[in-house]
Amino acid sequence: MLVLLYLRERQHCRNKAFCPRTHHLIARRGHVQSILKRASSVKAQTSVSSGQRLPSYLPWIDVLRFLACFLVIVLHCTPNAPAGLGHAGVALFFSISGFLIGRVLDEDNNPSRFYARRFLRIYPVYFATLAIFAVLSFPPFIHDAANGVLFWRNIQYYLTFTFQLSPDFDRLPLMVVWSLCVEELFYLLLPLVFLLKKRSRIAIAMVVIVAVLLLPRFSVLPNGAGLWFVFPLNLFFGVLLALARPRLRNGFPIVAVGCIGLVVVNGELGWFSAFGPISALLCTAAVWSLAVLDFKLPAVLDPFRWMGKLSYGIYLLHSFGLSAAVRIAAKLPRHLQGTYVVIVVTTAFAVLASWAMQLCVENPALKLRRSLSRNAGLRYVLAGVQVGLIPTGIVLAFIQRIIR
Question: Do the domain assignments include residue 11?
Fold first, then answer.
């Protein structure tokens, strides 16, 4: 009897549609296949995305921009802070600028269009900042009349981005302008290198320039100042990164975290020059790590991305915020007069002022970019001003030296 029951059950299980155990196995196998299919689909999508060229807008770079700007603010708000802390932020700025400008010229190396676009991006906000300072340089706004005198006596150096040529360079107000002068000189010369057309030729030329700047006899100016303060290697490394045309990648930006950490620590301890080869390599590696990051920016970081888009205005205007923050902190209770309060108030003021500057000055100026392609006259006029200001400033400085 038992044998008959066994044979009957075995015969029944051969029909898979009616065998409970087999039906369970089929369902389970189908579920596993569904999971594998979805995983392979996600993997395929990820691999396609991670191999793509970088998009035109890189939100993680804007987060890095704000971090760089914040380091400069912390330096200026903190008594006795080492200058290297601010230099660390500027070094990151230089690597970012070199990379982004390199991408622009790699896509379109038309010199007149490049110079005209640079004028609309840099000069309106810069001239508006100078106008604000000019108004505030008179009593009762300014608390140190000597700064007002220095500003007007050196107005030609401000207007022509030849800040470093001023005899009063070390005492001038709005000292942040020095880094803009460095970048403007770089923007003036870089399109000439891109006239070589081929990426390989351009890259070789950039490597040769870097090699020359690394030679001891060329790394110091006749007056003893470091040449890397005029031609920071960070800018050149950033351009070389752009010429490499990196692709999107997955994973955590561990390279960015490590390199930024080393750059900031070096700002405190001063192991190496902020604008020399080691710093340039670290800063540019951080830019690469965040530029290629194929990971959606978390919502919690979106405010920093937004402030990063305002970083140019924040960088220019934060000194006004610092002046206001010091006056406000002096009227607060003693336990609220710390450095942290000054940093917060300065940053908040600079962000709001930069936002207003963006709405009133920067955005209207950038709208003119659309007409540059069809309006050759406007393009050549703006490009001519962009190209001519620094040489004009150099000539005026030379004449002034002769007169003195």
Answer: no
Which whole-number Å values give the CA distances from 43 to 54, 73, 106, 126, 250, in the listed order? 19, 43, 31, 47, 11
Provide the domain limits for residue 202: 54-403
Determine, yes or no, domain membership for 186: yes
Cβ count within 10 A of residue 375: 14
Q: Are the beta carbons of 267 and 87 closer than 8 angstroms?
A: yes
Predicted local distance difference test score (pLDDT) of residue 39: 43
Which two tokens mark 289?
Answer: 């790590």
Work out how many domains the chain is built from and give that number.
Answer: 1
Q: Which of 77-86, 237-246, 328-337 has the lowest mean pLDDT?
A: 328-337
Does residue 47 lie in a domain region?
Answer: no
d(CA 308, CA 357): 14
Neighbour count for residue 100 (Cβ, 10 Å): 18
Per-position b or e across 271-309, b if 16+ CB within 10 A of its CB:
eebbbbbebbebbbbbbbbbbbbbeeeeeeeeebbebbb
pLDDT digits (tens, 9 = 90+) for 81-119: 888 899 999 999 999 999 999 999 999 888 999 999 999
In a domain, 19, yes or no: no
